[in-house]
Amino acid sequence: MRGICLLLGFAVLLPFGEALAIEPDAPEKLISADDAIGIQARRLVEKRKGPAADADKHRLAALTSFYADRESRPIWIARGVLSLGAKATIGEIRRADDWGLKASAFQLRRTNVSSSASTQELAAAEIALSLAVLKYAHHARGGRIIEPSKQLTTYIDRKPQLLAPSVILGEIAEADDPGAYLQDLNPQHPQFLALRKALLKQRGVNEENGIRPVRLPSSGPQLSLGKRHPDVAILRQILDAPVEPDREGASQDPEVFDATVDEAVKDFQRQAGLYVDGIVGRNTRSHFSGAGPASVSEAMLLANMEQWRWMPRDLGEFYVTANIPEFHVRVVKNAQVVHDERMIVGKTDKQTPVFSDTMETVVFHPFWGVPNSIKVNEILPSLAHGGRVLERHNLRLQYRGRPVNPQNIDWSRTDIRKFHVYQPPGGSNVLGEVKFLFPNRHQVYMHDTPEKHLFKNKERTFSHGCMRVRDPLRLAKAVLHHDRGWTMDKINSTVDRGPQNNNITLKNKVPVHVTYFTAVADEDGNVQAFRDIYGHEKRIRLALAGRWNEIRKGRDHLAPVKRRRIVRQQYNDPISDLFKQAFGF
């Protein structure tokens, strides 16, 4: 262990002296040469604070343990030079931008060693590359935003799909193609790959040959005849407008907008159907930059790709997925959509959370148990002032399993959270004919609704957080046919029986993925964009840009509902309006 700590010390504090060497008689084994630097390196790392520093400490500790188990044998050095696998790995890390990451985030400077590199340089390259691999894996698996529910909002209940550093180093050390191994650390879901294709397409990258066409920056000064700017040299490359020599044969300045560039720009404007004036302003510049539609920006694609890094690697052979900004729920079997329907999601202040769980039960003619938030904020004020909200909406009140007359209770001093408030099955039940349970800490589920007219709206943010499905019986058929072979006739007969024991426990739990993708791409890289109704995309974009202090996290929707103090005053019982807003009554 002594040697390993110093190995890490050399990688962190190379300027302070030699900490690692390669034994002349054992060129494949790394050894230590300076105890003090190893100790100093650990202290240096320990002084840093924050998630990034914690990740660095974790990676350093993992390297220590990994190389100790290998008796300090290197991964990347073979016969005194960097191996072919090392070079392939370095090349792949440098192409990190093609996977929605940032190649500039990985320190590869010390891996630039020549064939005559010293043992100290090779040792530095070994450690630098191993650390870069671990950091790449951390980012590829979603670790740039390590705790979305804390750093962004509690409504995003996702976690990066991280692998243990020891697993990564062990697997890449044994990989036949380390570069391909790194690629596979990124999500391999078809939709992630489609978004990646859209990203490359927008950047003008040809994935087959890696050619990146010259692009004029989408923003910059107005360019016209006689002006000088570095962007003019880019224009020359795009328009194939060479620099004409002067009368003496001397080359002119390629950054000067001369007559050759002026004429080439006018030809471009004619072909593009633009106003022909030879001036490269905002409109002409946008055509040169090759920017995609204004509604689909690179930042949008990157934010959506980042969310895929938090998704389970295996979504399931059969699963239900609900995309909030799209207002759609789908059933997927063997990667094919077998059911697709509209849905209603939570209001902006009562959002539908983003999470994955498993469906366990389908309930026909369900009871509705009123959650504490509605009890405290919407029912209690009415009861405390003599309102008749319970009978108006066919709600029942129980305490310890026994019916209670609400008129016999002083609600100004009573905690309504201790009571069970529910609505029995029936035509006015807010859950309609069926609900789908996938127990979760957010206490949300999918269900029917009697208010079908709401599905005509383009944006459907009307609920308290649960997802209402337009044709829930078809959804029930899709789930129960897969689980039990039920037909639509069987579904209808179960509904027609009325409110009996209609809790159908699934033989095989069904994965449910509630997502928030504002960009969905097809296999050709064409993107359909949806409005960022809850602001989650914006939060992710800010986080990826390092602008953490600008993120508005909003309220903690998982915090316990507090007891509400009731002040006696004139009261007109607005509960009916509240229910109309919540349930369409």
Structure, briefly:
By secondary structure, the protein is an alpha+beta fold. The relative contact order is 0.10.
Topology at a glance:
Elements: H1 2-12, E1 20-22, E2 30-32, H2 35-47, H3 51-69, E3 77-78, E4 81-82, H4 84-94, H5 119-140, H6 148-151, H7 165-174, H8 178-185, H9 190-203, H10 230-239, H11 259-272, H12 282-289, H13 298-308, E5 318-323, E6 328-333, E7 336-346, E8 355-364, E9 368-369, H14 372-384, H15 389-392, E10 396-399, E11 402-403, E12 420-423, E13 434-437, E14 446-447, E15 461-463, E16 467-469, H16 472-484, H17 488-496, E17 503-515, E18 519-521, E19 527-529, H18 536-544, H19 575-583
Parallel strand pairs: 5-17, 7-15, 14-16
Antiparallel strand pairs: 1-2, 3-4, 5-6, 6-7, 7-16, 8-13, 8-17, 9-12, 10-11, 10-12, 13-14, 18-19
Helix pairs in contact: 1-2, 1-3, 1-5, 3-5, 3-7, 4-5, 4-8, 9-13, 10-11, 13-18
| Strand percentage | 5-15%
The biggest beta sheet reads: 8 strands, mixed, barrel
Label the structural class. Answer: alpha+beta
How many discrete structural domains? 4
Output the strand order for the largest sheet.
Answer: 5-6-7-16-14-13-8-17
Helical content, roughly? 25-40%
Shape: globular
How would you describe this protein?
This protein has 585 residues and is α+β, with helices and mostly antiparallel strands. The protein folds into 4 domains: 2-185, no CATH class; 230-289, Muramoyl-pentapeptide Carboxypeptidase, domain 1, CATH 1.10.101; 312-365 and 426-541, L,D-transpeptidase catalytic domain-like (Beta Barrel); 368-424 and 555-585, no CATH class. Helix content is 36%, strand content 15%. It has helices at 2-12, 35-47, 51-69, 84-94, 119-140, 148-151, 165-174, 178-185, 190-203, 230-239, 259-272, 282-289, 298-308, 372-384, 389-392, 472-484, 488-496, 536-544, 575-583, and strands spanning 20-22, 30-32, 77-78, 81-82, 318-323, 328-333, 336-346, 355-364, 368-369, 396-399, 402-403, 420-423, 434-437, 446-447, 461-463, 467-469, 503-515, 519-521, 527-529. It starts with a helix and ends with a helix. Residues 1-44 and 569-585 have low confidence and may be disordered.
